[in-house]
């Protein structure tokens, strides 16, 4: 009884702190949870499919491809139907936020350049096509994880939109800013914890070690190092309370930072005008010299004076090997760079970043 009182007191305190974004207990969720309901707009899906790949569908029937995607989706929908309200219950309990809209507009596509979109829900069932390359689609439990990820992000986006303006804690948190890498990592961790209830451990471990997922999910190494086995969500400490854990949040945000406390001298003649990395070394050493703030090395977080010790599992012996390994990380959109900075070893994370223009 005393334990139950403490938990009730904890929930009451959090409700006050979050000013109207009430944490949801399991008992409350059970009474009000609604099963997910999906609505398909076939014509909108066909139009979108054609607009994304106009050259491909100049000689190919988009209606036929979307029809195939819908038939596959109808099988997947049966899995959601079998869960009833349990998916929404679990999602709300782990996030600590009230349930969001259970009526979901979905556009099943055959090809799409990424894992999908959340509003409307866009899911590719024929493969991932980007820059002329086609990757095989996800099936079975991996596809369920894909849907966990998209629906977790949708839940957090709708929660963010419904937050009261007086709730400065949540509105200003760097990991609750839609479109940011921190928001993506938060969605990924919620999906990871959510998937424990619906996906086998063997599939989850396969996902965690998959090069496909490392490529698709930005900041994978940051998530793996700072969140995967640390941010454990439960009804006692859901995601909402983890966001208030100052130390846990600080470590993730620090890993994502690309700002520097010290000014960096950059001259046009010191850095090649072309190239993705935009950096030079001091003499023949592996110490970073100048950086272009508009290109990848700086945006990842490398700074002037950093001594490169290792890149992923490799230890470059010279500048040529260092550049090759950094570019390999760029191609994968993931990796870890071990550097010595001011006498301390730090990790800089390779991830997808937007560049104005660059060529290798």
Would you give an account of this structure?
This protein is of the alpha+beta class and 360 residues long. The protein has 2 domains: 18-256, no CATH class; 268-351, Pdz3 Domain. 46% of the residues lie in helices and 16% in strands. The chain is built from 15 helices and 10 strands. The protein has helices at residues 2-17, 26-32, 42-52, 62-83, 86-95, 140-162, 168-172, 181-195, 201-208, 211-216, 220-226, 239-242, 246-256, 296-300, 319-332, and strands at 37-40, 103-112, 117-118, 121-130, 133-135, 279-281, 288-291, 307-311, 334-341, 344-351. The strands form 3 sheets. Strands 1, 2, 3, 4 and 5 form a 5-stranded mixed beta sheet that branches. It has a 3-stranded antiparallel beta sheet with strand order 8-9-10, sandwiched between helices. A two-stranded antiparallel ribbon has the order 6-7. A hairpin with a 2-residue loop joins strand 9 (334-341) and strand 10 (344-351). The protein is globular, with a radius of gyration of 23 Å. The relative contact order is 0.09. The model is unreliable at 1-31 and 259-269 (pLDDT under 50).
